[in-house]
Amino acid sequence: MQKMQKYEVNQHLIETILTWVKSCEIAIPEIQRPFVWDSSKVRDLMDSLYQGYPIGYIIAWKNPNVRLKNGTISEGKKILIDGQQRITALAAAILGHYVIDKTYDRIRIKIAFHPVEEKFEVQNPAILKDKTWIADISEAINGDLFEIAEQYFELNPAVDKKKVRTTLTNLMNIPKKQIGMIDLSSDLDIETVTEIFIRINSKGVVLSQADFAMSKIASNMEYGGNVLRKAIDYFCHLSVAPEFYDHIVEHDKEFVQTDFFQKMQWLKKENEDLYDPDYNDVIRVSFTSQFNRGRLSDLVNLLSGRNFETRTYEDTIAEEAYAKLRTGVNEFINETNFKRFLMIVKSAGFISPKLIRSQNALNFAYIVYLKLREMGVNSVAIESYVRRWLVYSILTGRYSGSPESVFDFDIKQISQKPFDEYLKEKEEGELSDAFWNASLPQSLDTSVASSPYFHVFLASQAKANDKGFLSKDVLVSDLISLRGDIHHLFPKDYLRKNGLTKGKYNQIANYVYMQSEINIKVGNKSPQEYFAILHEQIENGKALVSGIASYDELQDNLKMNCVPAEIQRMGIDDYTEFLALRRKLIAQKIKEYYRSL
């Protein structure tokens, strides 16, 4: 049997594509979604178009047919699944549209053009003062050629008028240039679309399922997907930039009237940065907690009305899926839920975002919180379960890499059996004595300061209110929060002078949070040298290194920082032994910390 063509390739004028964007015939992410290109890439794109160079294909996929309000069947909007940055760049440079940059600032990207030299540049103060430049090509492209040319000749009377008219004509014809669009068949499922994408894309970049999902939501008006999309984007934006609240009030009065907006108003005064979710996080947590599934491809299929058993599309399934997802998003953005979850995370010692490098671990911990709350589990038990699951998943790297299959497995287990049973099962399998006594100390043998094991150790210190190394009063938590520095127990310069390489002296077992002023006094002395000074300080009652005034205080400080007491007599020949001793102490502290959660 002959295989049906899965896609067709067409050439479209850039101005046609931009008209589709303006008329919402093609669905691209909301304007509040960050634009990650820097301005120089937009400049290079315009130069490529001017020179007639190819700028790659964009890929669009038609939604499965949906029923309109008038009862007719639409052919669905085109969902732009590859090329979003290029189309946004074109809209910014040619139409003069504002974009939201990576820091959620609303900016104009202005590209300048030199008609004589035929050069493009990002607009800057020097260009604005230079009459030989067209400062903003969007004004020229959307203006009248004769008027633009005459204004330029008036300011630059000595130029070759014929050449300038030609170059200005070429500039204004950029929207007439063609761009290739790969139109994927409307009856393709998400898995096939993903495969096609990977094969077409020369870089083999894995397509984000979250992008599929968000584009799908944005293109739906029948079940309020377009409003839901805004709610997700606005929440993510406000969590990073609360001042954006006034912009929403001023520019999106329709959204201001929605329940979503009422439920996220609390963010306007919120400056907590421990968990700043992006659209991927919101969609993943909302979906997994509500649907008991972990694969976002399933979400796209359900939003399309896919019946997995009959392999047909049904309006009722799509409607139910949108309603369910809306519930999930509402639960995610709920002030009480969000703040209680963060309180639990902080109570485990994770007081700063730099202690949590796995966003997936944080996401699933929130899923656990929402799921257990939905199941009516006791709030005290929820707190303990969330803390333990978060730390367990960080220690085991459970959600490192692609999390979808693990998300899917975990949520199905959690929804089918008591959580304490499942957690115990995982702990017995992966956090055995062998893990604490052998595997964890071995994992601490690294020079990577961002090691999750070291971060868990620091969290354990924050939870215990431990003091910084050799500090009498200053807490480790203060040093973390106030951007204190990590220092070396065996000073770096001391080890370097003794011939050790970077990978040896930058061992995390040699790291400790220490006040800078104490570190300066320690200098590049060996431990036995600076501890001798400290002992003198204790004996004479005169502060030479720190405020520690007794041997009991010193021993307590060493213990809370997992520094072996033997360090007080150690020099270069003892460094390897010191590292081994400290790794064991750190592992033991993490073990005790975990069991206290």
Question: In whole angstroms, how far apart are the ends?
Answer: 61 Å
Helix percentage range: 40-55%
Shape: globular
> Biggest sheet: strands side by side, in what order?
1-9-3-4-2
Rg from Cα = 30 Å
Unreliably modeled segments: 66-74, 202-206
Mean pLDDT: 89
**Number of beta-strand segments:** 13
Strand content: 5-15%
Domain tally: 3
> Sheet bearing the most strands, described?
5 strands, mixed
The SS-based structural class is alpha+beta
The number of helical elements comes to 30
Key descriptive features of the protein:
13 strands, globular, 3 domains, 597 residues
Question: In brief, what are we looking at here?
Answer:
With 597 residues, the protein is of the alpha+beta class. It is built from 30 helices and 13 strands. Helices cover 54% and strands 8% of the residues.
Sequence-ordered SSE layout with sheet pairings:
Blueprint: E1 7-13, H1 14-22, E2 26-27, H2 39-51, E3 58-62, E4 78-82, H3 84-94, E5 98-100, E6 106-108, E7 111-114, E8 119-122, H4 125-129, H5 137-141, H6 145-155, H7 161-172, E9 178-184, H8 190-200, H9 209-218, H10 225-240, H11 244-251, H12 253-256, H13 259-264, H14 279-291, H15 296-303, E10 306-307, E11 312-313, H16 315-333, H17 335-347, H18 359-374, H19 379-396, H20 404-416, H21 419-430, H22 433-443, H23 452-463, H24 476-481, E12 486-488, H25 492-497, H26 502-505, E13 511-513, H27 516-522, H28 527-540, H29 551-560, H30 575-596
Parallel strand pairs: 2-4, 3-9
Antiparallel strand pairs: 1-9, 3-4, 5-6, 7-8, 10-11, 12-13
Helix pairs in contact: 2-3, 6-7, 9-10, 9-14, 9-15, 10-16, 14-16, 14-18, 17-19, 18-19, 18-20, 19-21, 22-30
